[in-house]
Amino acid sequence: MLFTILAWFMAFWSAINLLDYFLRSLHIPVYMAFVERYELIVTLFQIRFVPIRSPCTILKTFAQNNSLSCLLTIWFTIGIISAISCLFGVTLYLSRSTVIEISSWWSEYFHSFASDVIYQVEPATFRKEFVKEDDGLKFIIPGWNIPWTQAPLYIGVLLVAVVIHEMGHMLAALSINVPVTSMGFILLAIYFGAYVEIDAVAMRRLSSVQKLRISCAGIWHNLVLALFAWMVHESTSFIVSPLYMSDAGVYIENLQKDSPISGPVGLQKGNVIQAINDCDVSNINDWNRCLKTIKYTNSGFCVPDDIIAENMADEMRLVGNELDCCHNSTWGNSASHMCFYVRDWMHTIRMF
């Protein structure tokens, strides 16, 4: 898998560089006009272009409005406090994670050589705590720990976060009359980013607090974006509640192919389960509770011995994680039947 990903990665960048080389060599008018207009630069593992030469008039007017100047100053001052707090918070979090990682590694190393029972119990407990608590920071790698089908979603989210980040820098600079020359985008290997070019001479004339307002504005706007996204996520169920029913059962979205619980008398896509063996099901919590109740409760159906003997299955197989005993039965259409456990009190458990 890793070799395949690397091969596709090298093939993509090789094709991009070759295409850029030939188009420039042939002086294709459309491509050359695009290169000059957007300052396109293509190098090894890097694409850079500048779609925005200068901020739009509306953004300039908003940032330099005298009535909003005080509000923007307060806004970006809060950004300084938030960014510095995050700096110390992230440093403490990463330091703690590093200590836990080193301690876990040392405990595993020491555990392998320890002979005392006391030392054999404590590291195992510590490792469990480490696994349980290490959920805050995770790497997202398409094809490795997330499916490729979700890659466009993550790329879109990254694009929005990058644009909001750079817009923060731009707005902070314009609010104190610092010229912004351009805003560009860059694709570096697999990372998509953006940047804002601010007049260096004007930056040197600013005070330390003003420089901090510009530098921290990107992080501050990303924090606000994350807070907004969290609020939308938490309120989604309330916003769309008029369009859907809630707490009315568990909806079957899909079934495994050839599942033994499907068929005319089984479950079908679109069914809503409202009860399991007289256990009411309103939501996923009820579903899990009912399944646990069934698991630890003896239940069954009384069936005459002659019917059991007539319909006893000779062969069984696993379909997914489900046991199927109807695929090789004597019935004409096994899809109309379902499998049940039968307990013969004189023998072992069988299926029919």
From TrEMBL:
InterPro entries xref list: MBTPS2, PDZ_sf, Peptidase_M50
Q: What is the membrane topology here? A: Multi-pass membrane protein
Residue ranges of every copy of the Peptidase M50 domain listed in the record? 155-249
Catalytic class of the enzyme: hydrolase
Name the Gene Ontology biological process terms: membrane protein intracellular domain proteolysis; regulation of response to endoplasmic reticulum stress
Reaction it catalyzes: Cleaves several transcription factors that are type-2 transmembrane proteins within membrane-spanning domains. Known substrates include sterol regulatory element-binding protein (SREBP) -1, SREBP-2 and forms of the transcriptional activator ATF6. SREBP-2 is cleaved at the site 477-DRSRILL-|-CVLTFLCLSFNPLTSLLQWGGA-505. The residues Asn-Pro, 11 residues distal to the site of cleavage in the membrane-spanning domain, are important for cleavage by S2P endopeptidase. Replacement of either of these residues does not prevent cleavage, but there is no cleavage if both of these residues are replaced
Q: Which Pfam family, giving just one, matches this sequence?
A: Peptidase_M50
Q: Keywords assigned by UniProt?
A: Membrane, Transmembrane, Transmembrane helix
Report TM segments.
Answer: 72-94, 182-202
Q: Name one GO molecular function term.
A: metalloendopeptidase activity
List the GO cellular component terms: cytoplasm; endomembrane system; membrane
Its EC number is: 3.4.24.85
The UniProt function text for this chain reads:
Zinc metalloprotease that mediates intramembrane proteolysis of proteins such as ATF6, ATF6B, SREBF1/SREBP1 and SREBF2/SREBP2. Catalyzes the second step in the proteolytic activation of the sterol regulatory element-binding proteins (SREBPs) SREBF1/SREBP1 and SREBF2/SREBP2: cleaves SREBPs within the first transmembrane segment, thereby releasing the N-terminal segment with a portion of the transmembrane segment attached. Mature N-terminal SREBP fragments shuttle to the nucleus and activate gene transcription.
The protein's matches in PANTHER family, at most eight in alphabetical order, are given as: MEMBRANE-BOUND TRANSCRIPTION FACTOR SITE-2 PROTEASE, PROTEASE M50 MEMBRANE-BOUND TRANSCRIPTION FACTOR SITE 2 PROTEASE
State the family it belongs to. Answer: Belongs to the peptidase M50A family.
Q: Would you tell me the protein name for this molecule?
A: Membrane-bound transcription factor site-2 protease
Source organism per UniProt: Wuchereria bancrofti
